[in-house]
């Protein structure tokens, strides 16, 4: 059964009527085995699975194995059809997307849904784009589940901020140019910001998530913090996916070039001298990945 349309609704514990029958083959392997509780009832488990940036070939072997075994998938919007195709016959797939600026599934709903299926003895895959512990609320969810005595384990994934290096041929660290890389978010619920001034002084390559909504403000804040106007910038949309696009620009032209290219989320913005190492790539050109 695939619940692929609309935002799911959950009214209360007593309203839930199970309509899913676990696939016996999916539960026969060690990772999927239920653990018997003292009362004899099975205890399920939640896996927080990092699905990577989009290319199914970038899934870890462990992630692919868990996804094939899971009886219930709770799936983010950025997890594409090629990865969803790994689901076992009979697995229930529920969309629980959370996208900035769009209608999102309430986090409380997602937490209660994970707990409900786990308590009914099912193997639950909370499938997240990228890595569950990098801007994926994985820590919050793990803590919430542990506080309720529910078994949970995370499976790491390749986050877009790291995948962008290989996808663009851009070394995020490079001897004599950048001694490290910082992954930061430009958007938070409380409108707080990273310490841009400290990051400017560090000389690290900066990979910025969630910066597309107001790229002009981001560029202004970075320049006020000490980043040079001509600092090289790369913007990559849908990293590793067939529709991947990127531009190479500089900080003072970043917002205008993003608008001219019609780029939007999901995307990451890479800022630093290391970006100059891909200057040979034609600007505004789409990168075609090898099959």
Automatic annotation (TrEMBL):
Residue ranges of domain Tetrapyrrole methylase in the record: 45-253
User: Its annotated pathway?
Assistant: Porphyrin-containing compound metabolism; siroheme biosynthesis; precorrin-2 from uroporphyrinogen III: step 1/1
Query: Has UniProt tagged this entry with the keyword Acyltransferase?
Result: no
Which Enzyme Commission numbers does its entry carry? 2.1.1.107
Q: Which GO terms describe its molecular function?
A: uroporphyrin-III C-methyltransferase activity
Ranges of Basic and acidic residues compositional bias?
A: 12-28
| Region described as Disordered | 1-44
Q: Which Pfam families match?
A: TP_methylase (PF00590)
Query: Into which EC class is this enzyme placed?
Result: transferase
Which Gene Ontology BP annotations are present? methylation; siroheme biosynthetic process
Q: Which UniProt keywords apply?
A: Methyltransferase, Porphyrin biosynthesis, S-adenosyl-L-methionine, Transferase
- UniProt xrefs under PROSITE patterns: SUMT_1
- Domain of life the protein comes from: Bacteria
By sequence similarity, the record places it as follows: Belongs to the precorrin methyltransferase family.
PANTHER family attached to this UniProt entry: S-ADENOSYL-L-METHIONINE-DEPENDENT UROPORPHYRINOGEN III METHYLTRANSFERASE, CHLOROPLASTIC (PTHR45790:SF3), SIROHEME SYNTHASE-RELATED (PTHR45790)
Name by which UniProt lists this protein: uroporphyrinogen-III C-methyltransferase
Taxonomic lineage of the native organism: Bacteria, Pseudomonadati, Pseudomonadota, Betaproteobacteria, Burkholderiales
């Amino acid at each position: 059964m695939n619940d692929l349309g609309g935002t799911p609704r959950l009214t209360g514990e007593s309203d839930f009527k199970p309509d899913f029958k676990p696939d016996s083959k999916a539960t026969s392997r060690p990772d999927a085995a239920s653990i018997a509780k003292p009362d004899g009832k099975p205890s399920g488990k939640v896996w927080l699975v990092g699905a990577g940036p989009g290319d199914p070939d970038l899934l870890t072997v462990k992630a692919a194995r868990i996804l094939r075994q899971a009886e219930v998938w709770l799936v983010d919007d950025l997890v594409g059809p090629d990865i969803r195709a790994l689901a076992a016959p009979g697995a229930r797939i529920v969309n629980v997307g959370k996208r900035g600026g769009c209608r999102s599934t309430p986090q409380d709903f997602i937490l209660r849904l994970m707990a409900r299926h786990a308590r009914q003895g099912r193997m639950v895959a909370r499938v997240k784009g990228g890595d569950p512990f990098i801007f994926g609320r994985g820590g919050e969810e793990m803590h919430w589940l542990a506080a309720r005595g529910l078994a949970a384990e995370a499976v790491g994934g390749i986050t877009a901020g790291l995948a962008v290096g290989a996808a663009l041929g851009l070394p995020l660290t490079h001897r004599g140019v950048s001694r490290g890389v910082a992954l930061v978010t430009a958007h938070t619920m409380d409108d707080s910001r990273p310490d841009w001034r400290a990051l400017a002084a560090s000389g690290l390559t900066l990979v910025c998530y969630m910066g597309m909504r107001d790229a002009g403000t981001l560029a202004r804040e970075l320049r006020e913090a000490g980043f040079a106007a001509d600092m090289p910038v790369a913007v990559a949309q849908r990293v590793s996916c067939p529709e991947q696009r990127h531009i190479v620009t500089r900080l003072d032209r970043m917002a205008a070039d993003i608008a001219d290219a019609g780029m939007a989320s999901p995307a990451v913005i890479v800022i630093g001298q290391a970006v100059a190492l891909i200057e040979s790539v034609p600007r505004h050109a789409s990168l075609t990945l090898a099959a």
